Amino acid sequence: GKVVESGGGLVQPGGSLRLSCAASGLPFYLYAMKWYRQAPGKERELVAHISNTGGFTNYADSVKGRFTISRDNAKNTVYLQMNSLKPEDTAVYYCYALYTREFWGQGTQVTVSS
Hints:
- The protein is mostly beta strands.
- It has strands spanning 2-6, 9-11, 17-24, 32-38, 45-50, 57-59, 67-72, 77-82, 91-98, 102-104, 108-112.
- The termini are far apart.
C-alpha cells in the first residue's frame, strides 16, 4: 500500500490551498488518517487527525479554525483545506495512514510568502 500527497505550492499570506492524499493498496476505510508538517529546522508536528469513518477530527491549536480535514472513503482520499494561511504554515506536509500498519507519504511543499 501507499499514500501520495498533492496540492502543495506557493501561496500569499491569507490565501488558501487544498491538499489531497490518495491511498492505494490498503483498506482505506479502516485507516485513521493524519496530516503532519515539518518546517526547516523543526521537528515534525501533527496538524490534523480524522478517524476512519470521518466522525472524529482533531487539530493542532495553531491551525484550529483555519484548517479542515475531511475524507472521502469512496475515493480513498483524505483532504486538508487550509485557509487564512500564514508564513509560519510554510512546511512540507505529510500524509499518514494508521491501522494495523502505517504508511507515510513523500510529502508536498507548502510555501506561504508574499
